[in-house]
Every structure is written in C-alpha cells, then in structure tokens.
Fold:
Amino acid sequence: MSRLRLLRAASVLFLTVAGIPALGAEHTFDSVYAGKRLLTKGTAGPRCPAEDNVSVTIHGGTLTFTNSALKRFAISFYPSQDGSFGETYQGEGGDTVNIHGRVIGDVIGADVTDYATDPPCAHHWDLKKE
Structure:
C-alpha cells in the first residue's frame, strides 16, 4: 500500500513540474509593436491628431505606449487568453485614458479614448509586431 502512495505522490509531483512552463505563457505577448493611430472621435488638433505614429512595448504586466502627445505612458496589461484586454488609467493630474483592444498573432487592434482633451478624442490603433 505504501508503494502505491509513493507512486501517486511521484505522479502528482511530475504533473506539477510538467505544468510549470505553462506559467510562463502569461508573457506570450511581450514584444514591441508599431503602427498608426487614426482619429475616430473628436476634433483634430495637437493632442488629438487625425493620424499619428504610435509604438507599444509589452513587458510582463505592463503596456507602455508612445505617440506625439504622450511619451512612455505605462498602464497595467493583463490580457485574457484570447488576447483581449481593457484598462482605464486615471492619473493624478486628471489624465484619464481608456484602452480596449486585442492582440491576435502579431497584430494589436485597440480603441483608445483620451479624456484629458476637451472634448475627449478617440483613436483606433493598428499595430504590428516589429
């Protein structure tokens, strides 16, 4: 009987260790992505351009983006298994940015609303992994 318990314990230990690589899967989106953001709502201006370059770096639980108005703007990044994500950032200075999107393969499509502008402006991101 004790041999059977030992065999079961060894099986559980093996399955636990074999499952450890799956824990690293949460960082499968880590990379640098670049592309354009296109105005979908609001009046074009310096903080709300009709078209602009945008770059995104995803590393661990952080998505950092840069465009002509915001430099190295970091937010939390916890995507679902299907690559969808959403986050609202509220800064001390009153800046609020709402991002909802999805990573599919090497592409990010996202809708981003900047509430710090008056009126708020919204852009759609089309980004590709570099």
